[in-house]
Amino acid sequence: MNLSAHQPNFFPWLGYFIKVAVSDFHIILDDVEFSKNNWINRNIIDTGGESYLTLPVNKSDTSKPINQVRLGQEYQFSLNKIIKTLEHQYKNSASFAFIKNLLTESIDKNFLYLSELNLFYLTSIFKFLKISTPIYKKSEIELKNNLKATTLLTELCKKYDCSNYISGVGSKSYIDESKFISNKISITYVKDLHSIFKKYELNKNSILQLICEEQYDINAKFPILVDDYKKNYLYKKQITN
To answer: Is the pTM of this model over 0.90?
Structure first.
């Protein structure tokens, strides 16, 4: 079985959701260290040029674990600004209604922590795309404290009896592949996701853009993308023991 894991990013790109969909289990790494200038509280859409959508966070919390990072006091103002940006770009799109309602609902909920807000968005997109993979928060899993990156991932795989870890290419810089091999766990890097995006002429920006741009019809196309990726790309980059 396959396991994947990732931080709770802010409306991540479609590749993340494909990775979740091809996994048997997915772990939200909600209590790992917050990373500045990353995708946990910002993302990009194309408005004729790159436009950053950013969630403000409490500056005194940026050295804490993600699930202890509080939203900035002005975050609801920022979400209203995001709604206006998307409305200007996609006001004639029927798909925009789903995103507008989602953002408006999140404003009404008065979230305190960044991870809670992002998990609300991720859960909603999982339902929208009909992703049935079991999702667990790392903070709610019984494991030893302060495990280093590779040990954490191998322990998660063993916890859920998974013999393959599905990893983003960026993880190559810190994963110790030898420890996976010694634990008889293979690694599959999702490098060929970019081939899927090129094949179906999809942009690599935030999932927000793909949902709002009706010509993609991402809700209907998503099962086709996942099936194609599983059959033709998933295991080409596998590191085995």
So the answer is: yes
